[in-house]
Amino acid sequence: MKRLLARIVSIVSAMAVCVSVMPSVFAEDVIEASSSSEVYDAIDGATGDTVDIVLTADVDMTNYISIREGLTVNIDCGEYSINDLYVSGEGALNVTGNIGSTDSDALNIEGSLTVYVEGDITSEEADGVEISGSSTVSVKGNVTGGSTAIEAYNNDSDVMTITVEGDVIGVGEDANGIYLAGNIDASVTGDIYGGDGYLEESRLSDPEDYSDGGTAARLSSGASLKVDGDMYGGDAMGTYGYGAYGADVGGGCTLEVNGNVTGGTVTGDPDVAPVDGSHGQPGAGILTFNGSDITVYGDVSAGAEPNIKDAWTIPGIFVLVESIQIADTEPGSIYIDGTVTGTDGYMQELESFTHGNAIEIMQDDGPQVMQAQVMQDNGTQQETAADMIPEITVWKLVNGKEDLEDFVGVVYADGPQELVDIINSEKLSYIVRTEENENATIEPSAEAAFADTEVDITVTAAEGYQVDAVANGETELEGEDGAYTLVVPEGGGIVISATVSEVPADEPTDEPTDEPTDEPTDEPTDEPTDEPTDDNVQTGAEAGLALAAIALAAAAVVATKKQK
Questions:
Q1: Nearest Cα to 211, choosing from 188, 235, 233, 229?
Q2: 561 - beta bridge partners?
Q3: Alpha-carbon separation of residue 404 from 54, 304, 308, 412, 444 (angstroms)
Q4: Measured between alpha carbons, how far is 144 from 122 in angstroms, rounded to an integer?
Q5: pLDDT band at 263 (very low <50, low <70, confident <90, very high)
Q6: Helices (H), strands (E): how many in the chain?
Q7: Which value, in Å, is the radius of gyration of the alpha carbons in the chain?
Q8: Which of 145, 140, 308, 302 has its CA nearest to residue 232?
Q9: pLDDT, tens digit, for every residue of 72-88?
Q10: Contact 456/485 with Cβ under 8 angstroms?
Q11: DSSP 191
């Protein structure tokens, strides 16, 4: 027995020793690096599936790192940063810490890598991140670039995926926030900013001087972008400057924004006009082409009113219609759940431009849209460019001057009135909103409708309540008994509300009639008898006989007494 116990103890001890040495035998060592050569050597010399690198100093990379398929490179920057990081290949890269650069791309990616960065990426003068190929890139932090914060291209059939859990910021003159071209699906949790132009104050009075702003987001060739935050086009400075677009969306692209989209404005000398009178303008909230799909759940507005003399006005949304020769081309759609606002200006020469319309539509290569033809690939069917105007749905349109008597929400510059009518009556619909009411339910017959059309509004009061009035803003609607009619106003801004009150407790819910439902008769239905119906009550004849009997009995008594 003692020998058996000793043998068991020996086996258990040996197993414990084996377990204790397993991590050092099967795991690669962590490599410390204080130079680019040490980083390259660690990656090139990796024999397993993973290489772990810890920086012990700021490291400036000088050449591309090639990461083979199946290899994962983990770089822990700690308190340091890795700069000018260029990578290619088909493996994976995980960076914990910040990536930076002064005059080069902070992070440049080629191939089909999987890249994850937990930290900020910043380039003072070049791109924060530049990507080509079909990589999957995730950044848990902010991305900032002096040229473009994020610039990405992908012609591969495989989609490129970009996810940023922070802000995307273009800095410096004409710096874009994000530029996407090709088969790309991108999402940004934070806000996107285009860069602001800058001029010294002494240069603001020069009629030919300028410093333009940068577009917040530019999409082309089928790219898709979703933004949870807001988008801001960069501001310009100088009389000749251009405020940037909040978004520039090419045909075939998709943009979805949960926040607001705003164009940049222009700051200059208010006493100095541009040299040719055609510059010094804010940026539209959105510039887009037919064939794109845009959804914004906030507001879209042009840049703030500029202080430039004779400055141009600009619409909230500017749509350019292209003559496209593609058989399956769709016109696209624009859905704005908020308000679209144009910017007022001071242009005196062109009276039609003294206010910024909410939306303007123009053919890309000239003003005569009605004459432009869109050829199908079979060469036989033709469509006017009016058919290629996107379907537009908005909640409200606001001109630069809200007090204009003749509201024109959508105009076509230099175009025929016929096209303006087509846009307003067949292409532009207004969202019907309802105000929440805990004591009533409001149900419109349509979620959106064209101007001057009728929408039925059904209002149902909660038990114990009654509907007093139903209105669109301050305009009371016609109707009764819960059925009302809204005539959709041009310009939109519809909010249907109901005024309800409690039914008074001392009044029945059903109105009483003046007379009872069963009319009383003049006489009772059962005629009363002259005599009581109770059997214990005697009739007149019976009473007489009883009296006679009593009298006879009394006489008999008297006679008996006399005989005695």
A1: 235
A2: none
A3: 65, 19, 22, 18, 29
A4: 5
A5: very high
A6: 4, 46
A7: 43
A8: 302
A9: 999 999 999 999 999 99
A10: yes
A11: -
CA distance 505 to 496: 28
Under 8 Å between Cβ of 235 and 196: yes
With a CB cutoff of 8 Å and minimum separation 6, the contacts of 58 are: 80, 81, 82, 83
CA 395, CA 24: separation in Å to the nearest integer? 65
Q: In what order do the strands lie in the sheet with 478-480?
A: 440-444, 454-461, 483-487, 478-480
Tell me the two tokens of residue 235: 């501001």
In tens, the pLDDT along 285-322 reads 999 988 899 999 999 999 988 777 777 778 899 888 77
**Burial label, 172 (beta-carbon count in 10 A; 0-12, 13-18, 19+):** middle
With 0-12 / 13-18 / 19 or more C-beta atoms within 10 angstroms meaning exposed / middle / buried, residue 100 is buried
**pLDDT-based confidence at 18, cuts 50/70/90?**
very low
Question: Count of CB atoms within 10 A of residue 554's CB?
Answer: 10
Determine the Cα–Cα distance for residues 143 and 141; give it in Å rounded to an integer: 7
Residue positions counted in the chain:
564
Dist CA 112 CA 318 (whole Å): 36
Token pair 């141009």 in the structure block, residue: 312
Residue 353 tokens read as 């431009």
Q: In which residue are the tokens 């005196």 written?
A: 348
